[in-house]
Amino acid sequence: MDFTSLSFTDVTRNFGRRRALNRVSFRCDAGEIVALLGPNGAGKSTLLSIAATLLEPSSGSVRYGEQPRAAWLRGRIGLLAHDLYIYPELTAAENLTFFARLHGLDDADRRVSSALARAKLVDRRDDQVLGFSRGMRQRLALERALLHEPRLVLLDEPFTGLDDASTSLLVERLQDLRSKQCLVLVATHDLEVIEPIITRALLLREGKLVQIPAGAGSLRERYRRTSA
Amino acid sequence: MSFLGSVWLVVRKDLVVEFRNREIAYTTLFFAVSTLLVFSFGFVHEGRAVEDAAAGILWVAIAFSGTLALGRAFERERQNETLRGLLMAPVARTALYLGKLAGILLLLLAVEAVIVPMVGLMFQAPLFRYPVMLIALLVTGTVGFVAVGTLFAAMLVRTRSRDVLLPVLLYPITVPVIIAGVRGTAALFQVDADLPMARAWLSMLVFFDVVFVTLALWTFEAVMTE
Fold first, then answer.
1. Contacts of residue B97, Cβ cutoff 8 Å, sequence gap at least 6
2. With an 8 Å Cβ cutoff, are B84 and A81 in contact?
3. Which of A111, A145, B4, B187 could be joined to B198 by an S-S link, Cβ 3.0–4.6 Å?
4. What is the pLDDT of residues B94-119, one digit of tens each?
5. Residue B182's pLDDT is what?
6. What are phi and psi for residue A148, nearest 5 degrees?
7. 3-state secondary structure of A202
8. Closest to B89 (Cβ–Cβ): which among A90, A94, A102?
């Protein structure tokens, strides 16, 4: 069973006395790339963690198509977070193989080879991640997150540490995901990079969701106007 | 991926990571050996060890070095948030728990393989009188200790003062395991070994293992959901 939309309804998340998300409601559908914008500490990562089923909302509900949150959904979600979820002591190939097997992928070896080729790490496949640059780790982590061909892709600052060539590759990858009717939620500060490929943008400010109006001006200009 | 397959994947990954940097093995072993050396200065006089000291010292070394291993094993998962990567996989979280438990257990048993002969040498403990019973006591005691420790270490992984809190939470709960381990081992080490007593303590340890592993499996899913 698959899902074609993600909807948050009045989702609130508290950490002690601090309210990270405050009655957040939105819906996005398959084939959309939605940018999640906002200053540091606005609640973007919290929202992504809730969407990834790693965090429980304090109140409100999250639905994946018609499905409520459930353990089986994790196999259909790809998450790239600030921390890259890769083991520095393992090689690039071992990291991908480990997660491929954990996801129960039958053709793990083929997928790992393809993923390493996409990450441009074929010649470093047997090197420990310990010696990789931030950009190389980021590319590897992205492939780890997409290895099982998830339907919902959650990316937290995916452009961090990437050079121009890698950024272009990631943009192409996002467009490819969109053409495959995946639902992509991207938390980012790289507005100029993301603007051409997103379907819309949401702004989080102090845990509350604010719509960025469509209209004249670049995404950054509209973001500044809205967040002012 | 089968349940046992997932457990094995986590164990193998932990062992490969440990084999590459040997961080936990070296620190745990160094700590355990240091503990034995310090106690040997206090409890061995003119070449003779104080009666019944060996069993207590052995279990103190296991408990202290085990606490160190538990803390480091989860600190490693915290540093790159790889624990969250594991939690995102569509496998039973109890499989992740058992995988982590088995990985730490194997490491501790390897440490015990070094320190038990040292206890035999330093404190004249008769290791080979009932070796199977001694191994059974060590394995069941270590399983009980690690079962609770793995759960608490996972629970505390995002806590700021986890290094302080882990022993504070762990020792009161595992006191019955440590006492059973000490008494059972002491029954074997005494001049006239009390085998029925050792068997009774072994049964107690098996009981604790079943209770602790069951409780940990039952609560791990909830503990891992933030």
1. B150, B151, B154, B216, B217, B220
2. yes
3. B187
4. 999 999 999 999 999 999 999 999 99
5. 95
6. -95, 15
7. strand
8. A102
| Interface touch A89/B87, C-beta < 8 Å | no
- In degrees rounded to 5, what are phi and psi of residue A183? -105, 120
pLDDT digits (tens, 9 = 90+) for B72-92: 888 888 888 898 899 899 999
Cα B59 to Cα A162, B56, B80: the distances in Å are: 51, 5, 33
Nearest Cα to Cα of residue A33 among A132, A181, A207: A181
- A34 token code pair: 């939605």
Query: What integer is the mean pLDDT of B55-73?
Result: 92
Are residues A35 and A226 in contact, defined by beta-carbon separation less than 8 angstroms?
no
Q: Is A69 on the interface with B (CB under 8 A)?
A: no
Predicted pLDDT at A1? 54
Q: At what angle do helices A108-118 and A134-146 cross, to 10 degrees?
A: 140
Is the pLDDT at A18 greater than 60? The verdict is: yes
Interchain CB distance below 8 Å, A49 and B225: no
* Per-residue pLDDT reduced to its tens digit, A90-102: 999 999 999 999 9
Q: Which residue of A has its CA nearest to B21?
A: A89
For B81, the closest of A72, A81, A103 (CB atoms) is: A81
CATH architecture of A5-86+151-227: 3-Layer(aba) Sandwich (3.40)
Distances (CA, A) of A219 to A36, A46, A161: 12, 23, 22
Instruction: Provide, as residue numbers in chain B, all residues whose Cβ is less than 8 Å from the Cβ of A52.
Output: 88
Angstrom distance (rounded) from CA A8 to CA A57: 10
